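Q: Could you fold this chain for me?
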Amino acid sequence: MPRLFTALEIPRNAAMSLSLLRGGLPGARWIDVENYHITLRFIGDVDGRTADEVVERLDRIDRSEFQIRLDGIGSFGSKKPHSVWAGVSSSPEMYALQAEIERMCQRIGLAPDPRKFTPHVTLARLKSSRVDDVVHYLSGRGNFQTSSFTVSRFVLLSSRESVGGGPYLTEEVFPLSEAWSVPSLPTSAMQPVKSLA
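A: Sure. Below is the predicted structure, expressed as structure tokens.
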């Protein structure tokens, strides 16, 4: 069974901005642009029945679309860096969606995710990159930021690769409700109704 995880997709213009960060770091294996994503919850290798239940439960999630942007870059693994990433602006709606998916996974018997949710887009996996090279790479790109974009859905992705980084296959798509605002009424419409008595 393929490995499953839920994620947010990266729109094309933001992905193109990310692609400009590729290069200039010895020992980096760069992620293909079409595989950029923000992991919400890693589910892992599950049997077909569990996968069907995951899909059924995810389909019940009813949340509104929201705005985020990619903001800053960094690395995981301070003494022995193993990946570089682009950060994601803080969004209460994104954290609420992730928490609901986490609760749903635990309700159907999956073990809690041991890692704290740290939203990011992995740019490269590092193999034998020197700390100095990583620090130099990050210092020249620290002010990276994209325009805000609307997240209108989340997806269930699968990976058949034993090593992370893709290719990923979209198994299911889960739309978020369109965010709407109440139009303001003209002040004349807010006048009290006169009694006819």
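A (continued): The chain has one domain: 3-177.
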